[in-house]
Amino acid sequence: MRVALAEDGALFREGLLMLLQAAGHEVVGCTAGGDELVELLTTQPADVAILDIRMPPEPDGGLVTAERLRAAHPEMGLLFLSHYAESHYLMRILQIGTEAIGYRLKEKVGSVDVLTDTLTRIESGEIVIEPVLAKRLVERPRGDKKGVIASLSERELDVLRLMAEGRSNNGIAGQLFVTPKAVEKHIANIFAKLGLHTDTAEHHRRVLAVLTYLRSQRDGD
Amino acid sequence: MMLEPAHRAGDAPRTAPEQDTPGSPSSAASLPNAPADPPAAAAPAEAGPPTRLQEPARDARRRKEREQWLRRRRLERQLHDGAALRISALVLQLGLFRHRVPAGEPDLHASIDGLQDELHAVLQELRDVAGKIYPPLLDEAGLGPALREVTERVHSRVRITAPDERFGPAAEGAAYFAVVNCLDILTADAPPVEVTVRRDGAELTVQVAGMDVRHAELMHDQVRLLGGTVEISALPAPSATGGEPGPGTITARIPCE
Asked: Which stretches are tagged as biased composition: Low complexity (chain B) (predicted)?
C-alpha cells in the first residue's frame, strides 16, 4: 500500500516510517507538518495518509490538513493518530468524512499486524475507531439512558458498541457468540428504532446509527 | 449571597486588607444584600474604602495566579511533547523488534506484547496526570468541548452550554476545575445539572444550575485567587430539610482576557 505520513514528533515519525516499511508498505512521503504533506500529495499518489492531530499548522493541523486532502483526493483514506482519544475529535473527524477514515491512539498501532489491519480497513472504505473510545462512548456510567437510545435492548447496545468499533457483522457475531443472522436482525431493529430508513446504504446507516447514539449522549439527554 | 475573593484564612500577612474597588467588575459592593460572612475573615469586609496603595498588591497576586495557570499549561504540553511522545516511539520500536524476532520464538513475541501493553498503561497514567494539570482539550478547543468530555464520565445528567469563544488560559483553567469539582460529587440519582458558560463584559461567567448550593465553596476555591467571585441563589428550602438550602444556582464570575 502507498502511505504518506505527517507527524511533527521526529522520534515517532521515524519509528512509524520504519514500522511501515517493515510491514511492506511504500512510504511515498514523510513530513513534519500538514502543509508540506498537502503539497507533496499534489504530485504523489497515496492510498492512505496518516496524520497527527496536534501538529502544524497549529493547533490541530491534522484536521485542517485532512479537510484539504479529502477535498483534493476524495478516494484517499485518512488515518488520524493522536496521544488522546477524545469524542470531541471523533465528532470533528466524522464531519470530515464517514468513509475510509480512522482515529487511533499512537501507541496502539505499534505492531506490523495492527498497523496493516488498520490501514487495510481504511483503504477498503471502513471507518476505524480506537476501541477504548468506542467502548467509552457506548458504555457511559450514566444511570438513565434517555431518548431513542433508551429504547434499545442490552443486546442491541452490545451490537451498537461493536458497530462503533467498526466491526463487520461476522466480527460482531464472533464477539457475541451468536450467528451472523442474529446480528443482522439486531442491526435491523437498531436501524428501525433509530428511524434510519432502508433507502440509505447499509454502510452509511451503520455510521449514522453510531452517530445518533453519540449525539444523543452529547446532548445530555 | 456573595463570597468574596479576599476571604481566605491563612494567607500570608498583607499590608492592607484586600478588597475590590467599587466599580470593578467583580466588586462585591455592586451587589445588594451581601451578608457579612463568612465569619472567619470578616475584617476585610469591614475595612474602610480602598486606597490606591492596595491596587498593586491585588493585581500582583492575580498576575501571579495567572502565571501559575500558564505554567500548568506548559507542563501539560511538556508531558505530551516529551515523555509521552518518547514512550509512543518506544512502542513502535518494540513493534519493529517483534517483527524481526523469528516466528519460532512465541515466548519472545508474548514478552514484547506484554511490554507494549505495559507502556500503554504508563501512557494512560500520564494522560490522567496531564488532565489534572491542565486538560489538553481545554487548551486546544476551549471550555465547551473540555466540559462535554467530562460529562461522559460523570454519573448524572449534565448539559453544557458554552460559546466557541476563548477566555484565556487562566480564566478557562479556573472555570474548568470549578465546574469539575462540582460535577465530581454528583451521585447517580442527582437531578439534572445545567452548566452555562458566557462572556459578560470583561468577565467569564459560569453558572451551574440544579446544584446543591452548599457546594459553592468548591467553585469559590478555584476562582478567588484570580479575583473571581461566586454568587448563589437557592430555591426556597422545603421545611422537611430543616430549612437548609437545597438545589439552586451557583454562579462564578472570573476576570478574563
From this structure: 22-50
